[in-house]
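To illustrate the input format used throughout this study, we show a single complete record. The first block contains the structure-token representation of the backbone; no residue identities are included at this stage. The design step must infer an amino acid for every position from geometry alone.
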């Protein structure tokens, strides 16, 4: 009896940001129809489609801000204020085609934390690597940079 109960209940399947974007694109291409008809074409559940449509602007914004499209759930680090300030600083420096390395990023993170009054913040290697992964940051040779 237990095996029958286990088969009857479905496991939760989280979709990545990339999969949600693909669903939105497919939904836009469909002719005007009810959500009930659309879920048959998209092969997803109606509550899932409703949730994706409700969060459409967040999904599209995340794609435009270079977030990691493979992530399934939004995660935050130990201090979201410092992380968002570092992301803004990083984006501004990258727009100027300046070269950035890990040591400079560590120092800037700690400097930003001190200016925000976060004395206990420490930019450890583990935190830094997880932050880069969350923000989809990779070090590559800049085009035109020497």
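Output of the design step:
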């Amino acid at each position: 009896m237990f095996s029958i109960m286990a088969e009857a209940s479905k496991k939760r399947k989280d979709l990545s940001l990339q999969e949600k974007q693909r669903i939105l694109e497919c939904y836009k291409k469909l002719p005007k129809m009810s959500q009930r008809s659309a879920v048959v074409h998209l092969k997803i559940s109606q509550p899932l489609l409703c949730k994706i449509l409700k969060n459409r602007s967040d999904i599209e914004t995340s794609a435009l801000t270079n977030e990691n499209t493979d992530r399934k759930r939004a995660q935050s680090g130990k201090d979201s204020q410092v992380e968002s300030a570092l992301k803004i600083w990083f984006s501004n420096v990258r727009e100027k085609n300046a070269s950035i390395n890990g040591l400079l990023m560590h120092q800037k993170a700690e400097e930003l934390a001190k200016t925000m009054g976060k004395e206990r913040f420490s930019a450890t290697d583990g935190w830094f690597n997880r932050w880069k992964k969350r923000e989809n940051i990779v070090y590559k040779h800049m085009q035109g940079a020497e």
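Structural context for interpreting the output: Residues 1-8 have pLDDT under 50 and may be disordered. The two ends are 68 Å apart (CA to CA).
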